[in-house]
Automatic annotation (TrEMBL):
It is found in: Cytoplasm, Cytoskeleton, Microtubule organizing center, Centrosome; Cytoplasm, Cytoskeleton, Spindle pole. Pfam families: TBCC. The keyword rRNA-binding does not apply. This is TBCC domain-containing protein 1. Belongs to the TBCC family. Residues 309-445 form the C-CAP/cofactor C-like domain. It comes from the Eukaryota. InterPro entries: C-CAP_CF_C-like, CAP/MinC_C, CARP_motif, TBCC1, Tubulin-bd_cofactor_C_dom. Its main location: cytoplasm. Residues 1-29 are annotated as: Disordered. Keywords: Cytoplasm, Cytoskeleton.
Length: 575
C-alpha cells in the first residue's frame, strides 16, 4: 500500500506517524478475534477455499457489486459467481447470518425464507469467504495415554471395525488437557488475522488519486471499516453496544451528521497490527503467569488436573463452560449463565440441563449423556460425541464427527451434517420447561418452523482441520442421519426438581409434532392408561401388588438400558 505525502484526514485522524496501541494491561481496550466466526462460521465446501483468496475475491467482489445497486446479493448470484449449488449458496447466507456481529443487520433479522429477499452485504460476504482459508489449531502432543484411559469410559463396541479412530477416541487420545486452550486458540486466530490483514483490508478499501501525477492509494470509509467487526472486537464483551468505528481513533469523534473523511488503509493496517501485537503479548504474559503460578479452578484456560473432575467456569469472553461431569445430573438456569454462550465439554454418563436463552452453544467430546439445551438463537455445534442424546430448540445446528447420537430438534434451518459420522438419528423436539417459549421469543426462534427432518450432509473431509482429515485424503459425502421410528419416539420429561425458575407459561411442547409421531404418542398414552386401569382393578392382595410393582420397575429399567435412555435414571433418582 502507498499513501500520499500529506494524506487528507478528518479531525479525528491520527498523525502520519500512526496511532499508538493501547496498553496491553488494559483488558477493556484489547483487540480479540470474534470466536463465533471461527467456531461456527467455517464450511467444509471445497469451492469456498481458495489457494489465493485475494486474487479470487477482488474480481468476485467487483462482479457482485456490478449486479446490485445496494451492495447486497442473493443466493442465486452467489451460486452463479462461485459455481456452487443453490443449496450451498443458501447455506452460505444462513451461516454468515449466524455469525454477523450486529443484531440489527437485515440478514440477521430476516425470518425463515426471507434471506434471498434481503440479501447479504457484498463486503461481509467477501470477508466471510476469505476466512474460509483458516486452518484450525492442532492439539498439543499427547503425553500420558495411561492417565487418559483411566479417566475415560470404555470405547464403543463398534470402534474396532468402523475406523482406526472413532471421533471420541480421537478426542481421548488427545485429552482435553492437551487440546488447545481458549488462550491458545485466540492467539492462533489473532496470528492468522495478523498475517492476512493487508489482504483483508484490500478487499474493503477503495483507490483514490494522490497528489502526485498518476499516484493512487487505498482508503477506508467509516462504513467499510465497520465490516471489520465481523473479524475483531475490542474489550472482553465486545464494543459494549458501540460500533467498531467508535472504538477506533479514526472515526470516534466523527460528526454523525457529516460523512467522515476516509482514512488511508495503511494507517488502519498499522493501527490494527499494533493492537494485535499488544493482544498477543498480553496472552503470552497471561499464559506464562498461569504456568508459573497456582492453577485457578475458575479459569477456563487452565488445564484440568483430572479430566473426571467436575469443572464449571465462566470465561472472560462471556462463555460458560461445563466440563467433566460424570455419572450425575447437572442443571443451569438463565440466572446461572454469565454471557451468551455455553460449552459442554467431555461429559459422560450424565444428564446435563441448560435451561436458558443463549446465542451459541457447543457440545464437544461427550459420551453416553443426555444434553438438554434451552433456546439457542444463533447456532449449536455438536462435535466428537458418541451415544449422546441432544435436545435443543435452535435456529441452526451443525453435527460433526459423531456416532450413535440422537438429536431431538426444534430447528428453523436445515441441520448440517459434516465429517465422519455413523448411525446418527434425528427426531422432532420432545420436551418443554416453563420458560421455554419466553426464551425462544427472546432469541428469535420460531415454533412454527421445524426442519428437523431435512438434514443437509456435506463432505467427510474438513479442510479446516488437518488432524482428523490429513492432506491427501479423498472426500466423500458425509453419512446423513435417519429418522427415529415414530413407534420408538417418546416425550422427554424434565424432572420436577429442576423447576427452580417456574415462572413461565409453557405447558406443552411448542413445536407441533408430525402426524405419525403424534399418533404414536396418543397410542402410547392410551396403552399406559389401560395398564394403569388394569392394575387398579386387579384383584390382588397388597403384598402381590407390591411384587407386581417391583417387577414393572425391573422391566422399566431394562427398557431404559435397551432404548439408550439410561441417563434418565440419574434424573429419576433426584425426584
Amino acid at each position: 500500500m502507498t499513501e500520499p505525502t500529506e494524506p487528507a484526514t478528518s479531525s479525528s485522524t491520527p498523525s502520519p506517524t500512526g496511532p499508538t496501541a493501547p496498553s496491553a494491561t488494559d483488558p477493556t481496550t484489547l483487540v480479540h478475534p470474534r470466536r463465533e466466526l471461527f467456531e461456527h462460521g467455517l464450511l467444509p465446501i471445497p469451492k469456498l477455499i481458495f489457494s489465493d483468496p485475494t486474487q479470487t475475491l477482488i474480481p468476485l467482489k467487483q462482479n457482485l457489486l456490478e449486479q446490485s445497486s445496494n451492495h447486497r446479493v442473493d443466493s442465486a448470484s452467489i451460486a452463479e459467481s462461485l459455481q456452487i449449488s443453490i443449496d450451498h449458496a443458501r447455506l452460505v447466507l444462513e451461516t454468515l447470518a449466524s455469525v454477523l456481529p450486529s443484531d440489527s443487520e437485515p440478514l440477521v433479522t430476516a425470518k425463515p425464507g426471507e434471506n434471498d429477499a434481503v440479501g447479504v452485504d457484498v463486503f461481509d460476504l467477501v470477508l466471510f469467504l476469505y476466512v474460509q482459508s483458516y486452518k484450525k489449531l492442532l492439539p498439543r502432543t499427547h503425553k500420558d495415554s495411561a492417565a487418559v484411559s483411566d479417566v475415560w469410559p470404555s470405547t464403543s463396541a463398534f470402534d474396532g471395525y468402523l475406523s482406526a479412530l472413532s471421533p471420541l477416541q480421537l478426542v481421548r487420545s488427545n485429552s482435553r488437557r492437551f487440546m488447545p486452550s481458549q488462550a491458545d486458540e485466540e492467539a492462533h486466530q489473532l496470528s492468522y488475522l495478523q498475517k492476512h490483514l493487508a489482504n483483508i483490508l484490500s478487499l474493503l478499501a477503495e483507490p483514490v488519486e494522490g497528489e502526485g501525477e498518476g499516484e493512487e492509494y487505498l482508503v477506508l470509509t467509516m462504513d467499510r471499516f465497520e465490516h471489520l467487526g465481523l473479524l475483531v472486537q475490542f474489550g472482553d464483551k465486545g464494543s459494549g453496544g458501540n460500533s467498531l468505528s467508535q472504538m477506533s481513533p479514526f472515526f470516534a469523534n466523527s460528526d454523525p451528521d457529516m460523512p467522515a473523511v476516509p482514512v488511508p488503509a495503511a494507517h488502519v493496517h498499522d493501527w490494527l497490527l499494533q493492537n494485535i501485537a499488544s493482544a498477543l503479548e498480553h496472552i503470552s504474559e497471561r499464559t506464562s503467569s498461569k504456568e508459573n503460578g497456582p492453577a485457578s479452578a475458575s479459569d477456563q484456560d487452565v488445564a484440568m488436573t483430572d479430566a473426571s473432575a467436575v469443572k464449571v467456569s465462566t470465561g472472560t469472553r462471556g462463555a460458560t463452560f461445563i466440563e467433566g461431569i460424570s455419572k450425575s445430573s447437572y442443571v443451569k438456569h438463565a440466572s446461572d449463565i454469565k454471557g451468551s454462550s455455553i460449552k459442554v465439554l467431555n461429559c459422560q454418563e450424565s444428564a446435563i440441563y441448560v435451561l436458558a436463552p443463549l446465542r451459541y452453544a457447543t457440545v464437544y467430546g461427550c459420551s453416553d449423556a443426555t444434553i438438554v439445551l434451552g433456546a439457542v438463537g444463533k447456532a449449536v455445534r455438536v462435535e466428537h460425541c458418541e451415544r449422546v442424546h441432544v435436545i435443543v430448540a435452535t435456529k441452526r445446528v451443525c453435527i460433526a464427527n459423531c456416532r450413535e447420537c440422537v438429536f431431538f430438534l426444534g430447528v428453523n434451518q436445515q441441520p448440517l451434517v459434516i465429517g465422519d459420522n455413523h448411525k446418527l438419528q434425528v427426531a422432532p423436539y420432545n420436551t418443554f420447561y416453563s420458560q421455554l417459549e419466553a426464551h425462544m421469543n427472546e432469541v428469535g426462534i420460531l415454533p412454527t418452523v421445524n426442519r428437523w427432518d431435512e438434514p443437509l450432509a456435506l463432505g467427510m473431509v474438513d479442510h479446516h482441520d488437518s488432524l482428523s482429515h490429513p492432506a491427501g485424503v479423498s472426500d466423500a459425502q458425509a453419512e446423513s442421519a435417519t429418522q427415529v421410528d415414530p413407534d420408538q419416539f417418546t416425550n422427554f420429561v424434565i424432572p420436577n426438581w429442576l423447576g427452580g425458575e417456574s415462572t413461565g407459561s409453557t405447558e406443552n411442547n411448542p413445536f407441533t409434532l408430525p402426524d405419525s409421531y403424534m399418533a404414536s404418542q396418543l397410542r402410547n398414552q392410551k396403552n399406559l392408561g389401560e395398564i394403569r386401569q388394569l392394575l387398579r382393578e386387579a384383584p390382588l392382595e397388597e403384598s402381590r401388588k407390591k411384587e407386581l410393582s417391583s417387577a414393572l420397575h425391573v422391566y422399566f429399567k431394562d427398557w431404559l438400558y435397551a432404548s439408550g435412555n439410561i441417563r434418565q435414571l440419574y434424573c429419576l433418582q433426584g425426584e
